[in-house]
Amino acid sequence: MSDTTIVWFRNDLRLDDNCALIRAAANGSVIPVYIIDDETPGAWSMGGASRWWLHMSLTALAADLGTLGSRLVLRRGRSADVLAKLAVDCKATAVHASRAYQPWAGALESQIKTDLAAVGVTFRRFAGTLLFEPEAVRTKDGGPFKVYTPFWRSATDGPDLPPPQPAPQALQSPARWPKSDTLKSWGLLPQKPDWAGGLRDAWTPGAAGAQARLATFLASGLKGYAENRNRPDLPATSRLSPHLAFGEISPLRAWHAARDHAHDATVMAKDCEVFCKELAWREFSYHLLFHWPTLPSDPFRADFARFPWAPSDADLRAWQRGMTGYPIVDAGMRELWHTGYMHNRVRMVVGSFLVKHLLIPWQAGEAWFWDTLVDADLASNSASWQWIAGCGADAAPYFRIFNPIKQGETFDAHGTYVRRWVPELGLLPNDVIHQPWEAPELVLRAAGVQLGKTYPTRIVDHATARDRALSAFKSLKTS
DNA sequence: TTTTGAGTTGTTCGA
DNA sequence: GTCGAACAACTCAAA
């Protein structure tokens, strides 16, 4: 029982329901380590908002480890090199880690296993990031799924998922702690300018924040979730996505927490099922990414490679800054910029707008979301952008073009969401809040709105852009 | 091998 | 205002 195990934390920044850690704790002393790796070839480097979150989350994890009498060792460099060196220096007998699923992860983990074996160290990989391993869900022919519903049916066909495991009660320290970088030296926080104020107000990164977020959702969001989750004006979604992305909470814990409330008299079984199905969408995205590693860069449907995009830097910039002239689009883009998050319904609206109204390649939207979202997740981001663009697995049909006015009127009927993020329109009455260009001059003046000055004029006309998109999609058939 | 039913999230038009 | 159909065919997954 005197073995020393390095626990390599990745996107599993929690102590509970973490098999890699729990098994290490049972074997002897534990050296928790996090490696910031911007060098592994092919890997997507973390975006700005995610780096802010990472700083906060590592701070929380180090504090949580402290309560168990342990520490968090920080290192920078290529994961494979750092682990091999650390294992030798610390005379560790094993390295434990939760498995990752990105396109480069398999090769990286094999390399690490080989490198460690060469110095007599065992590499053990554990599940923990997903509910269903990508290989475990198969069609009758043995292949991966390309359609969500049969994936869901197949994945949930078996016995109930096992319960999540509690955190270790204590962690045994090594005889001597290895050196650690300081978190500050990694420069993860924005300095000049400090744009993270809105993020700080909106979020509490870390496992405790994740548990609090889950508790709030169970108490006030799960009831009515099936309907209300589409309303960006309500606090009706779980907002667990960044916590899940960094593994501060396991999907298994969220799954069971929701299902435990299915018997609650005030919560409908439908609400629980819809929430669990949202968790399963994350699973489906990972399933796709694992089996189609080019998902982040190439259209899943190959014929989209010759789509007649019409990229425009000016339009892209207007979209990024929330200056398109369409209030629901601008509200979403500004929510994103300010808080690192955007409501799911609005993500679909702004995604459809970028790809279909502006004919800008979906990869540009994917890249912007990657940099600005605190919940940036390679699998969900890629799969979702492909879906909205119409080139993904099980994608929306091409004629499904969101009308940003109608979406606003349907899902933000009172304009609450728009007024929150586009305050210069705040005094407009409800009937024109989603289409200020239709307001009579007198109404605009009374609200202090001057189109083209205090708020932009529309960069495209909806009907014109819709026809243009339909023609562009049709050209794929004939050319 | 062939057949069959089905597929997250929408919009517009005309009755 | 409400409702159903059209918008296009195609691919998936299972029988």
Describe the SSE topology:
Layout: E1 3-9, H1 19-27, E2 28-36, H2 48-67, E3 73-76, H3 79-89, E4 94-98, H4 105-118, E5 122-126, H5 148-155, H6 197-202, H7 207-220, H8 225-228, H9 241-245, H10 251-260, H11 269-291, H12 313-321, H13 327-339, H14 344-357, H15 362-372, H16 378-389, H17 404-411, H18 416-421, H19 441-446, H20 462-478
Parallel strand pairs: 1-2, 1-4, 2-3, 4-5
The chain binds a DNA duplex (15 and 15 nucleotides) through helix 5, helix 14 and helix 20.
Question: How would you portray this structure in words?
Answer:
The protein is of the alpha/beta class. The chain has 3 domains: 3-128, Rossmann fold; 130-159 and 206-291, Serine Threonine Protein Phosphatase 5, Tetratricopeptide repeat (Alpha Horseshoe), CATH 1.25.40; 302-478, DNA Cyclobutane Dipyrimidine Photolyase, subunit A, domain 3 (Orthogonal Bundle), CATH 1.10.579.10. Helix content is 46%, strand content 6%. The protein has 20 helices and 5 strands. The chain has helices at residues 19-27, 48-67, 79-89, 105-118, 148-155, 197-202, 207-220, 225-228, 241-245, 251-260, 269-291, 313-321, 327-339, 344-357, 362-372, 378-389, 404-411, 416-421, 441-446, 462-478; strands spanning 3-9, 28-36, 73-76, 94-98, 122-126. It has a 5-stranded parallel β-sheet, sandwiched between helices. Strand 1 (3-9), helix 1 and strand 2 form a beta-alpha-beta unit. It is globular and about 80 Å long. The protein starts with a strand and ends with a helix. The model has no long low-confidence stretch (mean pLDDT 95). The structure holds a DNA duplex (15 and 15 nucleotides).
